[in-house]
Design a protein that fits this description.
206 residues; alpha+beta; five-stranded antiparallel beta sheet; globular
Amino acid sequence: MNPIPTISVFPKIPTGPTITMPMIPADVHVRFDNIMFTLGAIILCIVISALLRKITTLSFRSVQTRRLIPEAFIGKTNTLNSVIFNLLDVAIYGVTILIVLSHWKVDISPILTGAGILGLAISFGSQTLVKDIISGFFIISESQYNIGDMVKIGEYVGRVSKVTLRLTVLKDEEGNRIYIPNSTITTVKRIKVVKKSSIIKNSRGS
């Protein structure tokens, strides 16, 4: 018997030319991801730094607002606040840079090794810097002077505007800023500032 031919009920739809989408190279995706990660890390670093600064400022401010707190202690807290800000920024931004480099497939072990060798070389080569840091540590810990104090350091007289582990910044009456390395400070004279109100009271009483 002959086979019965099959008849298609649906008309045959002609097919056109196939369109192929261009393929995006894989390295483009990797670069885009790295760029987005870097931007996210920078933004997160800025947010963390601002948040830690805010928390530190509020902590010191809560201590300063308590009763029976001497002015010397308030000046010392301002000095410690400034030093903590500097240390936090160095630590946060340094760690962020290392994380970003590691994400970009950069081997950071030579960087860490080089940083250790560089630190060792600096410790031997820049003894003045080490002396500045040690002197600044004792100045802050012993509260020899604080931010806002009127002092005389050597031949310079001015109000302390900034104290770090490396240097002390004075501001004289003319508004000039004087930068003094802590290792060069041998003697400090804290000038007692008499308030105008007390002068007026004494003059009225006499």
